[in-house]
Amino acid sequence: MNYKHESAGKRPMWLLYCLAAVAIVLACFALYRAIGSKPKDNDNVKESDGTQQEGNQESGKKDDNTDSAKAKETEAIATADKLAKGYFYDEAIEALKDFESDDAKTKVAEYEGLKAALVPYTGQYYHVFFHSLIIDTALAFDNKGNSAEGYNMWMTTQSEFKKMLPLLLQNNFVLYDITQMVELDANGKAQAKAIYLPAGKKPLVISIDDVDYYDYMKTDGFADRLDVDDKGRVVTVVKDASGNESITYDGDVMPILDSFVDEHPEFSFRGAKGIVATTGFAGAFGYRITDLDKYSEADGKAMLAKVQKVAQALRSSGWQISSHSYTHNQYWNKLTITMDQMKYDTGRWKKEIEPYVGNTNIFISPFGVHFDKKDQRFRYLLDEGGFNIYCPVGANMSTTFVDNEMIQERLDLDGYTMIKHPERVSKYFFDPALVLDSARPPIN
Fold it and tell me: pTM of the prediction?
């Protein structure tokens, strides 16, 4: 009898259940692994992103540092270029000492070449002078205040002075410090001090007489006084007919020349400007510090402080200050000044003006007078006053060295010279017709 086994070819049910259970366990384990690994993968991504961000930040910092360094170098080169234009070659080189780029090295080589190219100057010295400038010709020439003829003869207008400066620059003049033109030898004798300039340049001294703004000028179109702005620049205070004051930068020679040199540093050798000459009988710079009994104690102290402040600002910007005598009396003009009068004049300037404007070794002679070199009055002025630079007036601007002083003549660039003797100006500087103010009346 054949029997058929019913389970043949089939797996027992319990085995299938076991296999199913194992498959479920393995699937769950795989799912757990997959889910459990994702946070780690995300963390890795974040860590990778963080590293990349940090790298970008470091790269950005390097770029910023590079840009900042380049900007500093560009600024330093601009500063050095301006210094070099004003003949401050060593200072220009020093300004670039911390930079190693090719641009900086090229600039340093350029400045060294310019310094090496300076040559000894062997020509004559040039010295021109002015009085305070006329800023309102209508008031100066209306004959309602002081004589229009006097202003027309001895003064220069604001317009004329501004026109002169570019012409002087074009003709190769460069402002030079008069105190650097003289030195004493081993025996105490004055001699010319070596001057080195670029080939073709000529040293020029500018001086301004009577920077006191006298009372008679108050209503005649001149500045009222000097002052100092909040940046330390010398300015002019100008009053209108109603007494309203305004601060200007072109009310006299000093602020005009300061601005011109800022724009054209090549017009000034190492920052030199000129000489401001003040008397004493009317104070200094427009402040009546020798008439303090007419003011309150507080006002007097304020004026003294202001004179000191103006003087310091002038000196720090390249100006020299000189004595123009204390009295500016006619006995200077006539050379009748006695020894007692000379002692009085010199003593009062030394006591009442010099302490506030600072020590000076320069004397600008009133009325441009010359003394005989052996005149005892002259010797007293120079020796007791401490002046070893004496500046009279002379059309040829000659410079001589006598004993322990330098005597340097000055040419006046005023109405009288430009109209009556234009050849004196054109011989050395420019044709006066190029600058003469059309508002000037005729000179009889």
Answer: 0.85
